[in-house]
Design a protein that fits this description.
Peptidase_S8_His-AS, serine-type endopeptidase activity, Jelly Rolls, Peptidase_S8_Ser-AS, Rossmann fold, seven-stranded parallel sheet, globular, signal
């Protein structure tokens, strides 16, 4: 939500700052801040001194051989949260510590348009009906699995008494309260499960196709109480209960190490995670705020990220787009099960993701040897695109989910071919690994389009074979420069690049055998021109804003704090507004006046929403600290808008750069 915060702050004493030889970790100011929940993972047993500072809300039931433990905690009353975070986030025994970000379901309101249309049109659109015929024929001739393929629905639970779903259910769990069943009281999880059942023919055929089963994992009650901690716990519960696939029709824009950690655990256990890309956000007047990037966990490299298309197969503007999108499926007016045995019509990427999970479950029944990466690659490889469309793009990913092609086309070891010429370069998405083959006479071309200047990090992991004397060539197209690097067993190459296209060429060496490799690309923003300004003692001085003045900065590293100072010549009014171009950032604004040891933390908005304040001030210094709520690296700049209105006319000598001596 958004509103202006009016704050009375006065400079009543001299503000003494440490010298340049001050400690690099100064005592943080006391801050008026809302209570927060924190997710912390210890590498071993939590220390007693840590437990003395927190209230433990929940302990993870996941315990590894190293006795790692993940907890959900809140800081005890009277403890400075900033000081607490500064201390424990750097502790050698802690793997990660971050706020318990909220997750939301990825559905949206839907009202079917007038006219005649088949309520199960989406099954035709993804060619499920054709796939069922193929499955029945192949299933007779192929060796059978010893048991069913289980898809865990990590959501609001499932209606355990639904007559359509009941025969397909296996025992699940209510993660928040294990003494209660995973019964769905909202309906969202039941609707997601219903789409899974529909892809298996349970809503239209006499009997379901194949031997798929649904495991209800309840991690939220009303769709508004979702968070990363219990969703990560739900993923781990599904893995412990031997789910083959997990579908997540929920998420958020903020990166969470807890979710990434749980997803990696699922991948190692052989469980594929399928997640909805999320829906666009709108203001109260219906104006679009954000429809990119993708929600997490859909944007994670180990996850099959699914967006949605409209009934005519074109991109749905309400479906989030961006790096990490793998495939799309119908998301408009999807017929599915509801609670009380009724049928529902729903819309959103929540109902596209289970279509992909349902198809993957059919594939896995025919190919139990497939790994999670094999399933991801096959679903992407067999997705359908129109002739002339790019092989991958931010709105459609690799194309429309195609169940028939997924069951009839063999898995290819190289999704990128043909890409042996620059004009055939394979588009590469950030944080989306590409598996490919390189031979002695081969040339593999790739291209990336960067929106901001930064550091491009290319990771090349040799999975099988020998690079011999192979090499990689990187071309910065806008600058006309290139560089060639020899390839080693595991290579990481960092290149500073401006916005624009970057081309990558892998060159095979003579007499080498085929090399099976994985290419992934990540990107890091550059530090802004005000760095280094991470602490109170080295804050950056800003030009006194007579009119509205815009400053731009970056959160270029984890836990980055950007400190700024203004020296105001007289009393007046200062307006402050912090905005970000991406909902990946949830801005935090700390205002600290000269002589004030407490400060005020402005945190009224959420992901992608501005923080703003109008302050009546007296002469002296005003210090501002900008950061991200999640302490994450942010892939787009933020803007700081300042407007100072002094009480009375402005003198010429008051328009100079403020300096601190």
């Amino acid at each position: 939500m958004r509103f202006w915060i009016f704050v009375w702050l006065a400079a009543a004493a001299v503000f003494v700052l440490p010298s340049s030889q001050a400690m690099p970790d100064p005592h943080p100011p006391e801050i008026t801040a809302p209570d927060r929940e924190w997710v912390v993972k210890w590498k071993g047993e939590p220390s007693f001194s840590f437990l003395e500072t927190v209230q433990v809300i929940h302990r993870s039931s996941a315990r590894s051989s190293r006795q790692e433990e993940t907890l959900l905690v809140s800081v005890k009353e009277g403890i400075n949260q900033e000081e607490w975070w500064n201390r424990w986030s750097r502790h050698a025994g802690i793997e990660y510590l971050h706020p318990n970000h909220k997750f939301e379901t990825a559905d949206q309101a839907s009202e079917p348009t007038a006219g005649n249309w088949d309520e199960f049109y989406y099954l035709e659109q993804i060619r499920a009906v054709e796939a069922w015929k193929v499955f029945r024929n192949k299933h007779r001739s192929l060796p059978r699995r010893s048991g069913p393929v289980i898809v865990a629905v990590v959501d609001t639970g499932v209606d355990l008494g639904n007559p359509t779903l009941r025969p397909l259910l296996v025992p699940g769990v209510n993660v928040k309260n294990k003494s209660l069943p995973p019964q769905d009281h909202l309906g969202h999880g039941t609707q997601v499960a219903g789409v899974l059942a529909a892809v298996w023919g349970a809503l239209t055929e006499k009997a379901p196709v194949g031997n798929g089963r649904i495991m209800p994992i309840k991690v939220m009650e009303d769709g508004n109480d979702g968070d990363v901690y219990f969703t990560a716990e739900g993923i781990r519960e599904a893995v412990r209960r031997h789910a083959d696939l997990i579908v997540l029709a929920q998420g958020g824009w903020t990166y969470s190490e807890a979710i990434a950690d749980a997803v990696r655990e699922a991948e190692r256990a052989g469980t594929l995670v399928v997640a909805a890309g999320g829906n666009a956000s709108y203001d109260l007047n219906g104006n679009l705020l954000h429809n990119r990037p993708l929600f997490y966990p859909a944007a994670l490299p180990e996850v099959l990220g699914v967006g949605s298309v409209r009934m005519d197969g074109t991109h749905d503007p309400s479906s989030n787009s961006g790096d990490g999108l793998d495939v799309v499926a119908p998301g408009d007016f999807i017929a599915t099960t509801g609670t009380s045995a009724d049928m529902r019509i729903e819309s959103g990427t929540s109902f596209a993701a289970p279509q992909a999970a349902g198809v993957a479950a059919l594939v896995l029944q025919l190919h139990p040897e497939y790994s999670p990466s094999d399933l991801r690659n096959l679903i992407c490889q067999t997705a359908r695109k129109q002739k002339g469309e790019p092989r991958w793009d931010e709105e459609m990913g690799f194309g429309l989910l195609d169940a028939y092609r997924a069951l009839t086309i063999p898995l290819s070891p190289d999704l990128s071919e043909p890409n042996n010429r620059p004009e055939l370069a394979m588009p590469v998405s950030l944080n989306q690994p590409v598996d490919a083959l390189l031979s002695c006479s081969d040339r593999d071309w790739y291209q990336l389009d960067l929106e901001q200047p930064g550091t491009l990090v290319l990771q090349l992991h040799k999975l099988k074979g020998d690079w011999k004397h192979s090499s990689i060539r990187i071309e910065i197209m806008s600058e006309g420069r290139s560089a060639v690097y020899p390839l080693k067993e595991r290579e990481q190459i960092k290149v500073t690049a401006p916005p624009g296209r970057v081309r990558v060429q892998l060159l095979g060496a003579g007499r080498m055998k085929e090399v099976y490799y994985r290419l992934s690309a990540t990107w890091m923003p550059l530090g802004d021109s005000y760095e280094n300004n991470d602490y109170e003692w080295n804050m950056a001085d800003l030009q006194l804003p007579v009119d509205a003045t815009l400053y731009e900065g970056t959160i270029h590293k984890k836990g980055d704090f950007d400190w700024f100072r203004l020296v105001l010549p007289r009393e007046g009014e200062l307006s402050i507004r912090v905005t970000s171009a991406t909902p990946r950032m949830d801005p935090l604004l700390l205002i600290l006046m000269e002589g004030d040891s407490k400060g005020v933390l402005i945190d009224a908005g959420g992901e992608g929403e501005p923080e703003q304040a109008r302050i009546r001030v007296k002469s002296g210094s005003v210090c501002l600290r900008l950061s991200d709520y999640g302490r994450n690296v942010i892939d787009a700049p933020y803007q700081l808008l300042l407007h100072y209105q002094p009480a009375g006319p402005v003198k010429k000598d008051e328009q100079t750069m403020a300096s601190w001596k």
